[in-house]
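note to self: dont lose this again. the chain is below, predicted strucutre after it. 150 aa total, dont forget to put it in the shared folder this time
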Amino acid sequence: MKIVLASNNEHKLRELRAILSDLGMDVVPMRELDIHIEPDENGASFEENSYIKAKAILDVCHMPTIADDSGLMVDALGGAPGVYSARYGGPDCISDSDRINYLLKKLENGAPVKTVRVAADDQISMTNLENDSLRKRLEQAGVLKLKEAA
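---
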């Protein structure tokens, strides 16, 4: 069974193929289906953002779709940047290096960093009940949380 990855990130693709191939699933990046959209990740949590991405791609391809969202959470900054990791620092921070420098600058005069966490959430979106076998295999494997598309 094919499942679409709502990303073209090669690292994510390799990782999910390694996990899901044992369950008989062929993970394909959205570019293989000629899908070139980037949904606005405006959710308040990693779970919401991953669902937004999965649902947007699902609406285009009508195939089971998987997406993830992740970010850095620095306790000394109240959990920031969190879901805003990719946009942290605003429009002046356009690269990972810019965002890292911005983060380090924010920490210069603050509390010492004791913990930094990387949070992630994965979602699968499916259109209908004919995907019950996929849902059951994933649940039994304990691989991912599942959410039925509205």
